[in-house]
Design brief:
The protein is α/β, with parallel strands linked by helices. The protein folds into two domains: 162 residues, Alpha/beta knot, CATH 3.40.1280; 62 residues, Helicase, Ruva Protein, domain 3, CATH 1.10.8. The protein has ten helices and seven strands. Strands 3-2-1-6-4-7-5 form a seven-stranded parallel β-sheet. It is globular.
């Protein structure tokens, strides 16, 4: 099997990029390392001549970029999601250094779809976006000035992914052979959980607080399987049915 086969299952997601030049430069960064799947969430200007100019020989990657209106749509079908951010916020996922994260991503890509998410040029990833991620990935930059250009961050991540493939020591998924639940399966379960908690009065409709966000982070760490999601949703359905009776 081709040592770079796993890269075909990895999509790089740019959330609301404001500068078309960064989109083109990101496409070029991906192609130089053997990746080809660029996803854009609500880009400010795409397609754009500046993006084409910065893409140089990677016009194929740029031209095949997929656009989505929101992050959840962009993550559809993924089994593992990482988000890059220089800042640690409340209720963020597990923090992993970029080299170790690349090993995880390549291993997960042997099992299914993986997404690596980058935030806006001005403010990075929002707390809401990070809540969709299983890992918070950090590039060990100068702590006095850790802010990297968007395309530069993509280039570093792409390089580490290629190195992880070349290393040849990436461990495959351990334990159960069952398939991890997809992003939309987990989000559907979380919506069902919230509905159940509201119905039983466990959370106040007007003051939900951050309980749902904490639950999302917990399930992100656990990475439940499809069958486990089905069991939980069956229980939620039973609770709601009893409430209706």
């Amino acid at each position: 099997m081709n040592e770079f086969q796993a890269l075909r299952n990895i999509r790089v997601v740019l959330c609301e990029p404001s500068h078309p030049g960064n989109i083109g430069a990101a496409a070029r960064a991906l192609k130089t390392m053997g990746l080809g799947r660029l996803v854009l969430v609500n880009p400010k200007a795409y397609p754009h001549p500046e993006a084409e100019a910065r893409a140089s020989g990677a016009l194929d990657v740029l031209g095949n970029a997929q656009c989505f209106p929101d992050l959840d749509a962009a993550l559809a079908g993924t089994l593992f999601v990482g988000g890059l951010s220089a800042r640690r916020r409340d209720l963020t996922p597990v923090v992993t250094e970029v080299r170790a994260a690349a090993q995880e991503f390549v291993a997960a890509a042997g099992q299914g779809e993986v997404a690596i998410v980058f935030g806006t040029e001005r403010s990075g990833l929002s707390i809401e976006s990070l809540s969709r991620c299983h890992r918070l990935v950090r590039i060990p930059a100068n702590p006095e000035y850790p802010s990297l250009n968007l395309a530069a961050s993509v280039q570093i991540m792409a390089y580490e992914l290629r190195c992880a493939c070349l290393d040849g020591q990436v461990d495959g998924p351990q334990g159960s052979e069952e398939r991890p639940a997809s992003h939309e399966e987990v989000e559907g379960m979380i919506a069902h959980l919230e509905q159940t908690m509201r119905s039983t009065g466990f959370i106040h409709p007007e003051r939900p607080g951050r309980l749902v966000q904490r639950m999302r982070r917990m399930f992100g760490r656990a990475r439940p399987e499809t069958e486990e999601i089905a069991i939980l949703r069956g229980f939620f359905h039973s609770v709601l049915e009893q409430r209706e009776r």
